[in-house]
Write a structure and sequence with these properties.
Length: 129
Amino acid sequence: ASATRYLVLDTNVVLHQIDLLERPTLCDVIITQTVLDEVRHNKISVHKRLRALITDEKRRFHVFSNEFHRDTFVQRQPGESPNDHSDRAIRRAAEWYQVQLGDAVEVLLLTNDVDNKKKAIASGLKAQS
């Protein structure tokens, strides 16, 4: 079955809602390299659980190496906090997917960060908390 929607997750969603992500009905998820690295550095137990989801082919959790892709790499700006840089990198990856997939598939950014959600919507992305 082909996806009609892809979820792009921010780091806080993974760190704080891993139990929800492990529900078998949740599929078609994009995990950016940014998120994977931040989760690994913040909480190794959650990283292991996320890796298990990624290796389960039925779940269709896909890793996107956004930090190594010329169209999605974002340089950290002077004075930009690591968190703001990561949020911007995740939004850029979601924007890229939205352009690549066009109208065929909805791309939805899930974030626990109100400011990140506001910036995503302002840039034309669909975003929910």
